[in-house]
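[step 3/7] fold_predict: job queued, chain A
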Amino acid sequence: MQHGMGAPMPPNEAAGQAHWGTGAPGARAQGGHPPVPVHHPYPAPPAGQPGPSAPAAPQGPPAHPGPQGHQAPAGPQGPPVPHAPAPQGPPPGWSGGQVTSHITLPPAVTGTGGATLAVLLIGPAGAGKTTVARHWATRRPVPTAHISLDDVREWVCSGFADPQSGWNENSEAQYRLARRTCGFAARNFLANGISCILDDAVFPDWPVVGLGGWKRHVGPGLLPVVLLPGLDIVLERNAERSGNRRLADEEVAAIHGRMAGWYGSGLPIIDNSTYDVETTARVLDDVLARAISGRPPA
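[step 4/7] structure written:
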């Protein structure tokens, strides 16, 4: 049934579905073109059956009839009412087909993520611990410092006690001083929300001077990880060193043998004999993630 003054019929669900996500209204197009055809929500009834009628729009008072045989002139017509814009999502109570939209998800956080950590990377000379520690610290998404014991020890320019010239009280005192200085720096970084990773050749048979001493200097939350490749790899890498950081093969072999005592200690051990620096740093991050989450090492 037509209504002379009523609003046009609203678009049906099928028309609305066709416009989801496009925002294309069914209003009259610019330039005088006819409006975009929109199907009405009341489908044509089968032949011979009356169809449902649209709800009647509110009607004003009837026009005053004129003399018999004449109709009163129609009142002024307002501008055409545009069709309502197509809905931007499924109508309430929609239970039809799947409706999808683009959702931007935050990047997945893997490994240690943004945790503030204090890490001690243990290993013999030539294990690559200094290079791996620096690489791991550089690639983290949060501020992280690398504190190298050898770098701090070499701050002593005059009177430097080189262990290659023989281990004595002077060299031992300088090592103890360097460890305390590294521990102080680590606590200072941590107090300011900056993670840190330290590296040192810590022997398992020196609990007081070694791991126990580091935990006293840095704190009980220190996470130790052992980097222990095969002896042939350690000897090869040591041969590429220069200056006082290159040790004799016999000394490297002795240190490597003592490091084997970490097996069975419960500390996570990474054999990076076949890993490059990038892979080793990635494995280190996974090991640390397991440690802080309470999961056992892989």
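[step 5/7] annotate
Confidence is low (pLDDT under 50) at residues 1-43, 93-103, 105-109.
Residues 169-191 form the longest helix (23 residues).
exit 0
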